[in-house]
Amino acid sequence: MTKSELWFTELQNENLTIGLRINKILHSEQTEYQTMDVVETEQYGTLLVLDGCVMTTDKDEFVYHEMMAHVALHTHPNPKSVLIVGGGDGGVIREAIKHPSVERAVLAEIDGRVVEVSKQYFPNIASGLSDPRVDVQITDGIKYVENHPGEFDVIFIDSTDPIGPAVGLFAKQFYESVSRALKDDGLFVAQTESPFINQDLIQKVQGDVRDLFPITELYLAYVPTYPTGMWSFTMGSKKYHPLRDQQPIRVTDTKYYTEQVHKAAFALPRFVEELIQK
Ligand code: SPD
């Protein structure tokens, strides 16, 4: 059978694109906040695209979702109450509720259409959204965080790229609210893009988080469909350190995260160390 000649191309920066052959366009719409497309790709299965940027694919989603959720949840000794800001596809929540200590997982997603479309086209990723511990709030995550002081053990900022509705999720003012929304021993993790092409953003976030949290660390994972593949996460923590306080493994049905990968993720290449030099 001849292959389709339809290609999805993400302009990752002005000099770099990623291209994926498309078998079928499954869904396209303009929501109140962004453009949203779901396409079936030959290489990575079903792909979710927001404002032209890859958000997740069926085949490599586990890397990002596991590494966002399990590093933090194996740092806090007893996480009970967690908040995911953004993350409307449900991937981080699916991983978070694998932790038996988690009693309550709130998803604060501004765009209800992302949740609905993910349930329809990504049933595996969205599978946690119907769990009784999960509370889905279609609301502005920034306001939600401001209005819930002292409630959470762990907060995840699973934002889109720093354009459109996500810009405020990379602001120092927002990290201040995150700090207030955490309990006295709470911690947060935010996705902070690629060390190869987003150095300014990573340095800014590191500086802001260091001003607010006694423990600030960066770690890496490898997501093939994200720009450059090398992806960073920034952790700010009031008390627990991800290496000194690493908890014994609690969740084993993972494909990427292991006890050793947790440790290794904090071993940074020299250019990344230099980028975030304290
Ligand atoms: N450029 C990719 C950045 C995407 C970060 N968020 C993805 C959402 C997946 N739950």
Which features characterize this protein?
alpha/beta; Spermidine Synthase, Chain: A, domain 2; five-stranded antiparallel β-sheet; 8 helices; binds spermidine
Q: What does this protein look like?
A:
The chain has 278 residues and is of the alpha/beta class. The protein has two domains: 52 residues, Roll (Spermidine Synthase, Chain: A, domain 2); 217 residues, Vaccinia Virus protein VP39 (Rossmann fold, 3-Layer(aba) Sandwich), CATH 3.40.50. The chain is 26% helix and 33% strand. The protein contains eight helices and twelve strands. A seven-stranded mixed sheet has the order 8-7-6-9-10-12-11. Strand 1 and strand 2 form a beta hairpin. Helix 5 crosses helix 6. The longest helix has 14 residues. The chain is globular and about 55 Å long. The termini are far apart. The mean pLDDT is 97. The structure holds spermidine. The site of spermidine has 14 residues, from strand 5.
| Count of individual beta strands | 12
Look at the structure and give the CATH class of the largest domain: Alpha Beta
| Percent of residues in β-strands | 25-35%
Shape assignment? globular
Q: Report helical residue fraction.
A: 25-40%
Mean pLDDT: 97
Strand numbers in spatial order across the main sheet = 8-7-6-9-10-12-11
Major sheet size, sense and barrel closure? 7 strands, mixed
Tally of structural domains: 2
CATH architecture of the largest domain: 3-Layer(aba) Sandwich
Continuous helix count: 8
Distance between the termini: 56 Å
Based on CA atoms alone, the radius of gyration comes out at 18 Å
Please trace the helix and strand order, writing H or E for each element.
Answer: EEEEEHEHEHEHEHEHEEHH
Structural class: alpha/beta
User: CATH homologous superfamily of the largest domain, by name?
Assistant: Vaccinia Virus protein VP39
What binds here, in terms of ligands, is: spermidine
Weakly predicted, low-confidence segments: none
- CATH topology-level name of the largest domain: Rossmann fold
